[in-house]
Structures are given as structure tokens and as C-alpha cells.
Write a structure and sequence with these properties.
The protein is mainly β. The chain contains 3 helices and 16 strands.
Length: 274
Amino acid sequence: MRDFVAKISLTALFVLAIFSASAAEKVTFEASSPLMVAVGEAFRVEFTLNAEPDANTFKAPSFEGFDVIAGPSVSTGSSVQYVNGSITKSFSYGITYVLLPQTAGNVTVGAAEAKVGGTTYRTKPLPIEIVNESEGGGSGARQQQQGGTNRPGNAQADVQGQVAKDDILLRAVVSRSSVYKNEPLHVAFKLYTRVPYVNIVPESAPSFNGFWSQDLSDPNSARVGRETYNGKVYETRVLYDYLLYPQQVGSLTIDPVDMTVVAQVVVQSRNADP
């Protein structure tokens, strides 16, 4: 009987250790919203923590340029999974607001703030492009307005009309344009998108003639963000990340990188099946 009690105690301690390790996971605090909305169009902004914040420590941004028509609305969720002998516990704490844009232009939702275990966490600011309804041509707004047609043979034209030339961009972002020999510089190849995409197919790899390169890319960590470029707001993703060391004096060129990005658009079918 004593041995049985000992086994039960050890099992309980083992499970407790697993849950303690899960509770000690890294705290994340993120904000999400649409990239582009029309003047007078209500939309949601959500702030999400993977842990419960300390009481009365959440501070919302000022929401300058928007009217707050609902919120804050708090939601929580948790789950426990047991897979192949491993127990994983997850928790989410969400605060949602419904906003109404006041005027057209580029407006930024500032950082929200909260404390978990006495440590302060902040979200990244969210740039949002506010357009007049007639200007909503470039991503989701244009897709809703056009919606496809029933005319035979027009599907390809509909798709091409829904994705503008600047809806998907690939840029090489260099930290500096003038350096000494062997002085490091940073270059990141970043994908800028204003429409959903389902696949990325590299056609050529980065080539750095005249440089010694160190690959900083992490395939297990997708570095995504949101930026304003040429007056438009994009979702960004770092595809390649390098540290370069020039090995000769003179003008050096970073060769271009080619890739195919498959965009996801909605086209109404002529048939009953979508």
C-alpha cells in the first residue's frame, strides 16, 4: 500500500511540474486589426495576451482619429492537450474594441499596455489606411465592390482587376548604403502584401558578389509586422535576413531575388458551385 501511495504522489508531482513549466512560457501581447477600412466603416481592434493580466493594469491607446462605438469587451479561453505523452496548456485573454474612422488618411492605433506578474508588456502600434469608399481598390474592399461577374470568360479579368501592381512587393531593405571594407551592413528581403496569399515559391536565392555573408534567417520564426510604404499600409514578412561584409572597395550591387507569390482572391462562379 505504501508503494502505491508513493507512485500516486510521484505522478501528481510530475503533472504539477508540467503545468508549472507551461505557465512559465514566454508572455506575448499582440494587437490585430484590418490593414485598410473605409470612412464610416466600423471595424474591430483586438489586443490578445497569452496570460491573465494583473488586475486593473490594462491601458488602452487613445484611439485618436477614431470614434469608439463599443468596448472594451473581454474574453478568455483556455485549453489542455495531451499528445504522445506530452501535456500542453494554453490560455488567451482578449480585449476588443469596435472603432469608427473619422476621416481618410493613414492613422495609427497606438500601443496598449498591461502588466503580468508585475512586468509591463506593450503591443506594437498598428498603422491603418483609411480610405473613402470609392477608393477602396487594392485589397479586400475592392474584392467586395467588384465581387466578380457572371459573364463567361471574365474570371481571369476579375482576378487581375482585384490584385493591383503594388498589392504584393518584394524589397531588399539595407541598413546603410555606404560602408568601409569589412564593415558589416544588414540586408533583409521583405515581402509586402495587401492581399491574402497562399504560397511563396522562391525562383532564385540571394547572391552577394563581393561580400562575405552571414545568414541570420530563422525558418522557425516568422518575423511578421505592419508598415506604411508609399502611403499604403502593408503586412510584412522577412523572408531572408543577412549580415554582409564588403570584401573590396568600390561600388557593389546586391543581386535581385525572384519569387512567385500566389495570391488568394474571391471570384463569383458562373455555376451554382462556389
